[in-house]
Amino acid sequence: MQLLTMRFKFPQFFVVLLMIGALTLGGCASNITSSSASPTATATSDTTTSAKTVSETISESVPGIKSLPRLEGKATVVMTVKRGEVVNPTQIEMEIDGTNAPITGGNFVDLVQKGVYDGLVFHRVVREPQPFVVQGGDPQGKDPKFPESRLGTGGYINPQIKTERRIPLEIKPKGAKDPIYSKTITEKPVLQHKQGAIAMARSQSPDSASSQFYFALADLSFLDGNYAVFGNVTKGFEVVNKIQQGDRIESAKVTKGAENLKTAQ
């Protein structure tokens, strides 16, 4: 039995590499150094180190963190999805965990309340060679004429200052009081890539997440510590499982916990 287990480890490893490679190249179709946002499991010595906790990073190494929305507690978001030729839209209910991911959760809830996700397309769906992710949230996808090959390169542009909002990588290790910012970690995080997890997509830079997010279609523990999980699907995972590339978010609404969102005055 042990020999059989060993024989299957290597193929599984190569399957994972193929999935990651497909995502990375797909997001960089227009430019290999673009600000594309796709999950990758590569952690380097430059980013995987011990880092400062929130009390230190707010005043020091994360510029602009005080101006970002924060979710102090939890919130419920209901996303209505229009799937291809299906007449009746279907819904996904998700819990956003601001207790363990206050900046990441706050960013998502704030964008939901602003209507940023309404009408956006799911531009990347990876189910082969095995279930991986469903990714959406690129504001450029609202325009049906926008080139499909360039989807995955955009983020939320603040209309007041005309710049893209980017948030720091935020991961809370198990047993820690506060999240760690701007660094990948090797410790086990509180919020993990279990099936149905919701996380922020980003490029290789740890602080490059903006509006793009993805649903985990399976347990993806190899992404833990590298990407910021901020919630999970509580109802309607069967809807997520049926999403196809090109399906759209009809609407996203905060149905509970909106009072937990705090924005800079």
TrEMBL record:
The keyword Isomerase applies. The keyword Translocase does not apply. GO terms for molecular function: peptidyl-prolyl cis-trans isomerase activity. Its EC number is 5.2.1.8. It is an enzyme of class 5 (isomerase). Residues 91-245 form the PPIase cyclophilin-type domain. Pfam families: Pro_isomerase. InterPro entries: Cyclophilin-like_dom_sf, Cyclophilin-type_PPIase_dom, E_coli_cyclophilin_A-like. This is Peptidyl-prolyl cis-trans isomerase. It comes from Dolichospermum compactum NIES-806.
